[in-house]
Design goal:
heterotrimer; A mainly alpha; B mainly alpha; C alpha/beta; B: two-stranded antiparallel sheet; two-stranded antiparallel sheet; 13 helices; C: alpha/beta; Rossmann fold; 3 domains; six-stranded mixed β-sheet; 16 helices; 31% helix; 25% strand
């Protein structure tokens, strides 16, 4: 069939319209859902049912919405961690490991213990855990940052390797020294180390009973605001963006690239570490083997889908929080992984539209 | 702690890394960074395993595994070569995709026992004292394939015309383009080759070296180690093979450390407390980090390094080249 | 039917080449006769390279026809053009640095088919070299060769493929005056052996020296097609090229230089290959003076700019108004009032995906009113950028436009505007007008002269000898990292400079 039109890709000469990045991200998600639905159908599932279930399980009531938000909370912080690093073209694939180290370090407050848990006021314990969590993540971010600055070692592999190291490190302590009667976890933490949740107010507000939304979400939102300010308004943010866009120009302009390599990796690690602390203190209330269903990796997708914008990270995190909740009940379990992969794949494919526009040209009829 | 066993095991598990790393070497030499190796390996492992189960023939499984890896890698190729998207993120998405597909399609495979690749002795050579036992006895056929594969690919890359074209495309694609070499074609081809070899590496695990399907535990990070190995190997297949075997031996050595009650004359701490084994499990990853640091420093000293156009999409210039 | 006329080597008729937003060639005709040297003249951006790239098979014209030796051709790739005997010698060499000369020459061919027997082909290439007098060691890796030697490899590539039509794209840009003469002799000897050559240039004097006929392009249109060189004056050529009788004249005021601002004492430095690039070099630049650095590319110019601006380490001392800034970071040089117009506009001098505003504040984003203690006031920054945009006549939709969308000239203006705003004491300008069209060149040169009048000391490094002669007060010639001689620009003898550029002469001026 010979159409009288042809479609060509033409390089954009002006800047792309402001709404385009958001639209491509949204479209990517929708297409990914459709493709996953097809795959699900192929292996005998029912996509429409799954979709209905998805909405009811994640946004259907305040209770499930709260669960969604609880899952979104660490994603916000990990998403920010990845966004900050990616802005400088630093590929931090190690957010998972930094998350675990943050969890570990913040648990030390209770496990050692670092303060007297009977007498110390709650907010001091929590504050201490926050600091320790961020320190743990920052240390884990420092290592690849330093290695890259000093030896120009590729940070992708290093951060990834450190994920596994953090996992086994964590395992040792919970299997061995601080094990709860031989189980693969520590005993439950004292209440003073728990982040406040809405259900704590159940006595005054009946509606809040059973709602597990905890203070961590506030951490996430505050972090997003701070990161936005750093990236968009501060000197440092300008420097980060400049280094990310053209390190040679940054050097020419007098910026210290090695210093920033280390600092940005530490900031990124600290954010992921904070996520770890939030999960320990707000949800799990103990140190155990499985704290993260791959938050560190999902965070990469969140950051990319949010096009590295801190506020978009919040929105995208909620979506992915929903995916995690729904994914737990959807069989087969690998579908969640697959969906994430397809979304990411669609997002990067659609990035081409930022550089090229599609033109439909009417073919001239030869006389 | 038997040296013979350690060397033997090293050659076996090293073969897995060898295939994956050489595949990635091909891809990177053409200028395409493919971080999806772990996903492609897992997919290959599952595809090979399930095909062997379904057809009763491990070799068919092997071929399907290679095809699976290759086809998946073409997605990466399309996005990075034609759409010129960022290669790091595309590779990561491939890891998710490959892992996701492998998990979804591999439901229910755990615990099955399909036919595997035969384990053989090489006649005559296996009679050589010690070396014969280490190199030529009781290895999967794929290990022997690995022995010839590394030198063959090295020769291909450095001494043949197609190899020269491959290197030119990765170093200075514009030079190749103006002389009539299809840069896109070469890149697609070697991306596919890389994917096939990653799939092969995965099938080598599930159908040969450690037969079985254990979900994500099947590969447990070896794909990533292979990517690191490429840098350590300075993009040279012989060095990749050497690194792979060395890695395999070190892993076995570390594993064996947990066995005896007395180690080198002192009480073995691992024997006392098996939890110390976690530190040993860390070792492959720590070693990779060390290997990378070492490799980067050596590269800077010799002013060697990655193919110059690695990771950079090729666009024919508009106002001349 | 009467006997058909002898066919030309190449005939391009009504060629139109379009890119998004640009009409690069507008119905251009070009005819190349057998055995002639045909010049394709035009300023930067006129469309010369694009036209020839079509002949070399890299682009397909939107419309128009091409004939080679009378045969209608339609090239789908460079391979097709090569098969028809078209060989292009590119301005920016298409050589793989890590491979040898022989490997580069054999790239893309069918022989040898699979197994590379390099020694056999090394000899074949040596024989080819003797035939045309182009000597270079085939076993050396390209990164080890000098620029002139690399050019010879480019030419050998085309000759090895049996090219009988050679397109040479700005071949003299990287050569010293004597090497240019040598190249012209080579070209003449090639035409005597039956080759036909198209010679792209924007330099009038070279064109008149060696070409038989010429075609002139201006903004994509041919203003002269196949004109005979005989009898053409510089004025006529200038008019054809830019529409004015004279290219342009910049007014340089007489003024006395002031105190020494830059004092280089016995500077030695290595280049990226670990080879010595600067060899105990000493120089002084005064307030309100332009010191031009002449020299063949690759004799230490880049390294000289880099050690002064803190991007490369060195031995010796670099005194700026008395303070030693050698072996510090760029931030130290910037703090001492050194401005740097880098050689590489897009790779070093700007951030391509950031806006004009963000590019202009690269040096002053911490200073009031744009920056306060921690943050940047982008409203102020945009005002600042807008002011610069107007003052320097920078063409762009607005200050939020990304730098990579700007043309070369406009980008260079942004860089200059930024550097000048820092009120520098010393400005290091490296190839500031390279690749720009005449209008932009004029603007940039005028800006440099304005800075000179304002009292800034300027170190001007340029490949264009004419530019140095016009703008500089004094000229220093660089060869192998040493100053061969310094002289006043007014009375400079080009022949003498040429000899110094190739190391043949030294003076103790």
């Amino acid at each position: 069939m010979n159409l009288p039109y042809t479609v060509i890709f033409e390089k954009r000469t002006e800047d792309y319209p402001k709404w385009l990045p958001a639209v491509t991200s949204l479209a990517s998600v929708i297409v990914a859902f459709i493709i996953s639905g097809i795959v699900l159908k192929m292996i005998g599932g029912d996509p429409i049912l799954v979709l209905k279930f998805f909405f009811s399980a994640t946004f259907g009531s305040w209770a499930v919405f709260s669960d969604t938000m609880v899952k979104a909370t660490p994603l916000i912080m990990v998403g920010l961690a990845c966004a900050v690093a990616f802005k400088m073209k630093l590929w931090n694939i190690g957010a998972e490991g930094q998350f675990y180290m943050g969890a570990f370090f913040s648990s030390l407050v209770v496990l050692i213990p670092m303060v007297n848990l009977e007498t110390t006021p709650k907010f001091i314990v929590i504050a201490l855990m926050v600091i320790m969590g961020m320190i743990g993540g920052a240390i884990w971010g420092f290592i690849p940052g330093y290695l890259k600055a000093k030896y120009q070692v590729n940070e992708i592999i290093i951060t990834l390797m450190l994920n596994y190291v953090a996992l086994y490190w964590n395992n040792f302590w919970i299997f061995d020294k601080w094990s709860d009667a031989g189980f693969q976890m520590t005993p439950q933490f004292e209440k003073v180390a728990w982040l406040p949740r809405l259900s704590d107010l159940a006595k005054e507000y009946k509606a809040f009973s059973g709602i597990t939304l905890h203070l961590g979400v506030v951490f996430g939102i505050i972090a997003a605001i701070i990161i936005w300010w750093i990236l968009e308004r501060s000197h440092w943010g300008y420097e980060i963006k400049l280094i990310g866009d053209n390190p040679q120009a940054a050097r020419y302009a007098g910026l210290n690239i090695t210093k920033n390599l280390v600092l940005v990796m530490m900031l990124s690690g600290a954010l992921a570490g904070l996520a770890g602390m939030s999960e320990i203190s707000g949800v799990v209330h103990r140190l155990q083997e499985k704290i993260s269903p791959g938050y560190g990796f999902t965070g990469i997708i969140v950051a990319w889908l949010a096009k590295l914008n801190p506020f978009a990270v919040i929105i995208v995190s909620i979506l992915f929080g929903a995916l995690i909740i729904a994914g737990r009940q959807i069989q087969p379990s690998g579908i969640a992984n697959l969906l994430q992969g397809i979304i990411l794949f669609m997002v990067i494919s659609s990035d081409v539209l930022l550089r090229y526009k599609i033109r439909i040209i009417r073919l001239e009829q030869e006389a | 702690m038997n040296l013979e066993i350690i060397l033997h095991a090293g050659l076996a598990t090293g073969t897995i890394l060898l295939f994956a790393a050489i595949g990635e070497i091909f891809s990177e030499r053409a200028g395409i960074l493919n971080l999806g190796v772990e996903g492609m390996m897992l997919l290959g492992a599952m595809a090979g395993f399930s095909t062997s189960l379904a057809t009763g023939n491990a070799w068919v499984g092997l071929i399907v595994a290679m095809l699976a890896g290759g086809i998946l890698s073409l997605a990466h190729g399309l996005v990075t070569i034609h759409l010129q998207a960022d290669q790091v993120v595309s590779g990561l998405s491939l890891t998710f995709l490959g892992t996701g597909l492998a998990l979804v399609l591999g439901e229910g495979l755990t615990g099955q026992h399909p036919p595997t690749i035969p384990i053989v002795d090489i006649p005559l050579l296996s009679q050589i004292p010690f070396l014969g036992k280490v190199f030529f006895s009781e290895h999967s056929l794929l290990v022997y394939v690995g022995y010839i594969f590394a030198p063959l690919t090295a020769y291909y890359i450095y001494k043949t015309r197609p190899g020269m074209h491959l290197r030119a495309v990765g170093e200075k694609p514009s030079a190749a383009d103006t002389l009539g070499i299809s840069v896109y074609g070469v890149r697609y081809f070697y991306t596919f080759v890389g994917g096939m070899l990653a799939g092969l590496a995965g099938a080598t695990i599930s159908l040969a070296i450690t037969p079985g399907w254990y979900s994500t535990q099947t590969t447990s990070g070896q794909g990533w180690i292979a990517v690191g190995l490429v840098i350590f190997a300075q993009w040279n297949p012989m060095r990749a093979a050497f690194g792979g075997y060395l890695f395999g031996m070190l892993r076995r050595f570390i594993l064996d450390l947990q066995g005896p009650a007395v180690l080198f004359g002192i009480a073995n701490p691992l024997y006392v407390n098996s939890n110390y084994g976690f530190f040993l499990q860390m070792m492959p990853f720590v070693l990779t980090i060390v290997a990378l640091i070492w490799g980067s420093r050596a590269a800077t000293k010799k002013r060697l390094g990655a193919p110059a156009a690695l990771g950079v999409p090729y666009i024919r210039g508009e106002r001349g080249l | 039917m009467t006997s058909s006329p002898p066919s030309h080597a190449v005939e391009m008729k009504d060629i139109v080449i379009r890119f998004p937003g640009v009409l690069a060639n507008d119905r251009v005709n070009l005819t190349l006769k057998h055995g002639e040297i045909h010049a394709l003249l035009g300023e930067n951006g006129a469309g010369k390279s694009t036209l020839m790239s079509a002949l070399a098979g890299l682009y397909k014209p939107s419309s128009g026809t091409m004939r080679v030796h009378g045969e209608l051709v339609d090239f789908n790739s460079p391979k097709d053009a090569i098969a028809k005997g078209i060989g292009m010698v590119y301005q920016h060499f298409m050589l793989v640095p890590t491979q040898t000369v022989t490997e580069n020459i054999l790239l893309g061919l069918n022989e040898p088919k699979f197994f590379m027997d390099l020694p056999k082909y090394d000899q074949k290439i040596r024989d080819l070299q003797d035939q045309f007098g182009l000597r270079v060691d085939p076993t050396m890796k390209v990164w080890q060769l000098s620029v002139g030697e690399q050019q010879r490899v480019e030419i050998l590539k085309t000759l090895y493929r049996g090219a009988d039509v050679l397109i040479m794209d700005e071949p003299t840009a990287v050569l010293a005056p004597q090497e240019i003469d040598e190249l012209m002799n080579t070209m003449r000897s090639m035409t005597k052996q039956g080759k036909s050559i198209i010679f792209i240039s924007h330099k009038l004097n070279e064109v008149t020296a060696v070409a038989d006929r010429l075609t002139v392009l201006r903004k994509g249109v041919a203003t002269a097609e196949g004109m005979d060189i005989e009898g053409l004056t510089g004025e006529k050529l200038a008019e054809l090229m830019v529409g004015r009788k004279v290219i342009f004249r910049v007014e340089k005021k007489e003024q006395e230089p002031g105190d020494v601002v830059l004092d280089l004492r016995e500077i030695s430095a290595q280049n990226n290959k670990g080879v010595r690039a600067l060899n105990k070099l000493s120089l002084k630049v005064h307030q309100g003076e332009i010191l031009g650095i002449a020299g063949v590319a690759g004799n230490g110019q880049s390294e000289l700019a880099e050690v002064i601006t803190g991007m490369r380490g060195c031995e010796g001392s670099i005194l700026i108004n008395g303070e030693d800034v050698a072996n510090t970071e760029p931030s130290a040089a910037i703090a001492r009032g050194v401005a740097h117009i880098p050689e590489d506009r897009t790779g070093v001098g700007s951030a391509p995906n950031m806006t004009i505003t963000e590019n202009t504040i690269m040096k002053n984003y911490r200073d009031q009113p744009i920056g306060n203690k921690w943050s940047i006031n982008f409203t102020e920054a945009r005002d600042h950028a807008r002011g610069l945009k107007d003052a320097y006549d920078i063409l762009a939709p607005n200050v939020r436009t990304m730098a990579r969308k700007l043309s070369g000239g406009n980008l260079q203006k942004v860089i200059l505007a930024r550097e000048i705003t820092t009120n520098p004491k010393l400005m290091v300008a490296m190839q500031p007008t390279r690749g720009l069209d005449v209008g932009a060149i004029e603007s940039i040169q005028r800006l440099l002269l304005e800075q000179r009048e304002a009292g800034t000391a300027i170190l001007l490094i340029s490949e264009e000898l004419e530019e140095l002669l016009t703008l500089s007060d004094r000229i220093a010639v660089l060869h192998e990292g040493k100053v061969m001689g310094i002289m006043d620009a007014e009375n400079a003898d080009v022949k003498e400079i040429g000899l110094m550029m190739t190391g043949t002469k030294r003076s103790d001026a």
